[in-house]
Amino acid sequence: MSPIYVAIDTPDLERAKAIATRVKAHVGGIKLGLEFFMANGRHGVHEMHDIGLPIFLDLKFHDIPNTVAKAIQALRPLEPAILTVHAAGGRAMLEDAKAAAPTGTKVVAVTMLTSLDDSDLTSIGLKPDPHEQVMRLTELARSAGVDGIVCSGNEVAAAKKLWHDGFFVIPGVRPANGVIGDQKRVVTPRAALDAGASILVVGRPITQAADPDLAAREIEATL
User: Fold this and answer.
1) What is the pLDDT of residue 125?
2) What is the DSSP code (8-state) at residue 103?
3) What pLDDT digit, counting tens, does each position of 30-78 carry?
4) What's the sign of the alpha-carbon dihedral 43, 6, 25, 13?
5) Which residue among 110, 135, 186, 210 is least crowded, i.e. fewest CB within 10 A of its CB?
């Protein structure tokens, strides 16, 4: 199965279904985030599930452990293949998130958003070193018992050395000639896969292409 998960970030359910249907043969799953979920909720996720691809529910939970656990329990009927929490929520939150998740759902911890760089870390009171921050949170996630992490392609090789059997989700993936947009730490799909990525999250290069199916096929061909 393709390691590409297409990020369908739109509140329009019919558009989301149309894109997913067009690229179905060339991707391994669908990533649905806050924009989609806030507009369409559980019903929308069920509709997308009917297309026949695994669902990556990217809601990035970050709250006190009890609240996160109950929120994840509420999502159990959706049986997502993957869901996200923020590693910065701490060990107890990560442990409770994994315990609350449905059997078979991978819980992955977001280390550092790919829209941030060293200056952003400084602005929130952290050391201006994305690599160090990601490694610290990778070790926390591993020891807390979740399934893997979300990190940029710049850090995945080092993270895999720390966590050989971890599950590594790489967002901010752009084709060599792709528009970076609001991402700051990006890599090509081939480079991310070679560095140890388990799945690649690709959004706008596919969803905003004139021909999403062709765009997905072209990215798949580089792998």
Assistant:
1) 74
2) T
3) 999 999 999 999 999 999 999 999 999 999 999 999 999 999 999 999 9
4) positive
5) 210
By C-alpha distance, which of 71, 69, 4 is closest to 42? Answer: 71
Task: State the catalytic residue, choosing from 17, 24, 60, 184.
Answer: 60
Contacts of residue 216, defined as CB under 8 A and 6 or more positions apart, other chains included, come to: 4, 6, 23, 26, 27, 202, 206
- Dihedral angle at the C-alpha atoms of 53, 172, 70, 41, nearest 10 degrees? -50
Q: Is the pLDDT of residue 130 over 70?
A: yes
185 and 160 in contact (C-beta within 8 Å)? Answer: no
- Could you tell me which residues come within 8 angstroms of residue 2 by beta carbon, excluding any fewer than 6 positions away? 26, 27, 28, 220, 223
d(CA 51, CA 91): 35
Q: What is the DSSP letter of 89?
A: G
177 has a pLDDT exceeding 70: no
Predicted structure pTM score: 0.89
- Which segments of the chain are extended strands (E)? 4-7, 29-33, 55-61, 82-86, 106-110, 148-150, 167-170, 199-202
A 10 A CB-CB count for 25 gives 11
- 77-110, pLDDT tens digit by residue? 999 999 999 999 999 999 999 999 999 999 999 9
Catalytic residue list contains 60: yes
71-80 core/surface letters (b: 16 or more CB in 10 A; e: else) = bbeebeebbb
Between CA 99 and CA 107 the distance in angstroms is: 10
φ, ψ (nearest 5 deg) of residue 78: -80, -20
Length of the chain in terms of residues written = 223
